[in-house]
Write a structure and sequence with these properties.
mainly alpha; two-stranded antiparallel ribbon; 21 helices; 10 strands; elongated
């Protein structure tokens, strides 16, 4: 296949993944069906957390065959970096100024050290540092907290213009799910990753990203990869200037396969046809290149082996030193929580399960029709930072809604086997404070909480004279927050939900028998 055709196919595949994923995060009108979540389940970290062994094997085989094509076609954060790099003009000569890339030495200490630390933390059940480096989760926070509000703001602007023109087809959309913390996190990620992409192309992917480091280890042995023929190369550095991974050393005629993301930019730039993409199974990078000097080849091999040994020893020492520190940090952060615990979504099983699986991608936040899922700050500890929790300020959890469990790609919110299971899943229990109730303080009728309870857990009982006051039956309560949301008492409600650290099953509400009356006449 010609170089231009390879690049065209790669760009088309990247757009085929990136555009639907971005629109799925920004969809505020429910246009896209929930089945689109499969695009997010094929991401590496969500597949690991969800235990999708078959998918992980498929991604590993994909890398063994064609190198790190995952990074250039499937990963949304990687494609976003390509957009930023292209806008900046990097890799091209622009306005007679140097806007091209240069070869950079690999930062093996950093990339493999971070990968090792993330693996250790993951084995210990701590995913918070991994969520800060996971490319999918970082893109999710950018899309949910930056791109989506911009789309909603543009929609509201169209609504204002349309209303003035007498057109009422558009409607105003309010957004309550973007918190200060989530907005700051999205801005930080976009600034750091964007700056790296502007200045150094795929620097984030080849230094900080654990997925890139993991796939880089596999891509060293890929069957098809980019190689250089030194007999044809005139060291014009055109290929090196176009390489956004900065992995082509045109002076020594080497290409670092562990950092190459298979973007194929170098193939179209080479005028001497010294760069080729071909089958190189069971060949090392030096063996697959044609070199005129055997002595130089042996010297390069020795230097490469020695460098590899140094990197391995240094990385191992870094990981070994980090183990006791990580263990101490984990013990401290696991106990570093406030008195209150968050209300986790139905299907998350328990607080521990949710913290071990959720990476804070905020997909469930964007798709909650009631907008009651909000990213948390430090109120529940560092290990719950940016993870969503239930807030019943403006709405409550619909009795039959299970969208969050459907779209979650990480397995943090597990889908229910049947719709009835969701109706009896107890994520918390309502607690009634008589001293705050308007019936007690103002001696006036209310009963709003009982009217909004879908399980009959809150009912009105005789209190004084003809007044009735709420009473909670914990066995029937599912913690949906209907009573808390509707309670008129402010700022502290008279009835509110206490979260269950481990979700339980509530009793099914009793169905009243409907007597069948036979009417013989009109009843007058």
């Amino acid at each position: 296949m010609r170089s231009s055709a390879l690049k065209t196919v790669r760009v088309l595949l990247a757009l085929l993944f990136f555009i639907p994923i971005t629109l799925y995060f920004c969809d505020f009108a429910g246009i896209f069906p929930n089945s689109f979540h499969w695009l997010l389940q094929i991401q590496v970290i969500p597949a690991i957390l969800a235990g999708s062994v078959g998918l992980l094997i498929a991604l590993a085989l994909l890398t063994v065959l064609w190198g790190r094509v995952y990074c250039s076609t499937i990963c949304p954060l990687g494609i976003m970096q390509d957009f930023i790099s292209r806008i900046s003009g990097r890799g091209k000569k622009k306005n007679k100024k140097k806007c091209w890339f240069r070869y950079a030495k690999p930062q093996h200490y950093l990339r493999y050290g971070l990968l090792g630390i993330c693996v250790i933390l993951f084995v210990m059940g701590i995913v918070t540092p991994l969520s800060f480096l996971d490319p999918y989760s970082n893109f999710g926070r950018v899309a949910a907290n930056l791109f989506r509000p911009l789309v909603i703001g543009f929609n509201n602007l169209i609504h204002l213009v349309a209303v003035k023109a007498g057109n009422f087809d558009f409607y105003h959309v309010s957004i309550y799910t973007v918190t200060k913390g989530s907005l700051i996190s999205g801005l930080i990620v976009f600034f750091i990753v964007g700056t790296m992409a502007l200045l150094r192309g795929r620097l984030f992917c080849n230094t900080l990203c654990p997925v890139g480091s993991l796939l880089g280890l596999i891509s060293r042995f890929s069957m098809f990869r980019i190689v250089m023929d030194q007999t044809r190369c005139n060291q014009c550095t055109l290929c090196e200037r176009a390489c956004k991974s900065q992995c082509i050393d045109s002076q020594n005629g080497t290409i670092d396969a562990s950092r190459c993301v298979s973007c194929y930019n170098c193939l179209s730039r080479c005028k001497q046809k010294a760069i080729d993409y071909r089958f190189t199974w069971k060949k090392s990078l030096q063996e697959s290149q044609t070199t005129p000097q055997p002595e130089q080849t042996q010297t390069n091999k020795k230097e490469s082996i020695q460098a590899g040994r140094r990197d391995f020893i240094a990385t191992g020492a870094m990981i070994a030193t980090a183990v006791p520190l990580v263990h101490m940090w984990a013990q401290r952060t696991q106990g570093d929580t406030s008195n209150d615990i968050p209300i986790t979504p139905p299907g998350s099983k328990s607080l521990l399960h949710f913290k071990e699986k959720c990476t804070g991608c905020h997909l469930c936040v964007t798709h909650c029709p009631q907008q009651i899922l909000k990213p948390a700050g430090l109120a529940f500890g560092f290990d719950y930072l940016l993870k969503p929790h239930m807030v019943y300020e403006r709405a409550y959890c619909s009795y039959e809604c299970d969208i969050c469990s459907t779209v979650c790609p990480n397995g943090a919110i597990v889908p229910f086997k049947s719709p009835d299971d969701k109706k009896i899943t107890q994520i918390g229990v309502a607690r009634f404070r008589r001293g705050r109730c308007v019936v007690f303080n103002d001696e006036t009728d209310c009963g709003a909480c009982a009217e909004h309870c879908p399980t009959q857990a809150v009912r009105m009982v005789p209190y004084k004279d003809s007044l009735r006051i709420p009473e909670v039956t914990p066995e029937l309560c599912v913690g949906c927050g209907g009573c808390e949301y509707i309670c008129p008492v402010r700022p502290y409600r008279a009835i509110y939900v206490i979260p269950n650290e481990v979700h339980e099953m509530a009793e099914k509400p009793k169905v009243e028998e409907v007597k069948d009356f036979k009417v013989d006449d009109f009843g007058f």
